[in-house]
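Let's see one such:

===
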Amino acid sequence: MMKKTLKDKITFCILAIITIMALSPFVLILTKMIHMGYKYLSPSLLTSYPRNLGREGGILNALAGSFILIAVSLTISLPICLGAAIYLTEFVSNKKIKDIADSLVEVLAGVPSIVFGIFGYYLFVYILGLGFSLLSASLTMALMMIPIMLRTIEETLELVPKEIKLSAYALGASEWETAWSITLRMATPGIITGCLLSIGRILGETAPLILTTGYNFRTPISFLEGVATLTFTMYEYIELGAAYPELLGKAAATSIILIGIILAIDLLTLYLSKKLTRTILV
């Protein structure tokens, strides 16, 4: 009994050390960013546009630009992922086709973001002539969102009990009516979760944006204008930090805001995942 208790204590200590080691990089990064940027955090940082190359004013252009970019990218990618997920889970009877599609999605999910950026630059900026613009960046980001969103929605649709679908068929509903009125309705929290996960993916990206969007010190009013984002703004401030050291502090303050937004998205995703589980179990 004593040996078992000692083993349990040793195991507990080892796991606690591993947990601390896993969390320590995040804590160190957050601590450093807070130390560098806390004095730049203020309401005006979020509510005013930058002036004098960002040395004065706030980051309203980047904050608004990030949400605009997300909205446009989501508008492009969600219908594609929703249609593909419904087709693969509800209408494809050939398992080989589904396996090939799933393999291609997995490969796409592993493609580095810089490759998406190069592809977006070559196709949207150069070939299609959209230039460094909100539309070029949104189309590139939409491609990055597809693997995570499609896989999450597909898995969510597969969790809907078959008994419910068979009951709908028995009542005379067609496959499309069942998918639209029953399957999608039950899977709504999971679909939202897929959207949030994909948003979390692109929200922290910088490389594709450098290659597809031009910076804008204001909120874009056209799809063909450049757009600023939080990550791109941090990149620009760090580049100018050698000449203007105060911009390094503003970059750190911007990173704190970005981390806060991503944490909020993660918490919302966790909440919706639990809600989805309860909905399906009930």
About this structure: The chain has two domains: 2-38, 41-281. The chain has a mean pLDDT of 86.
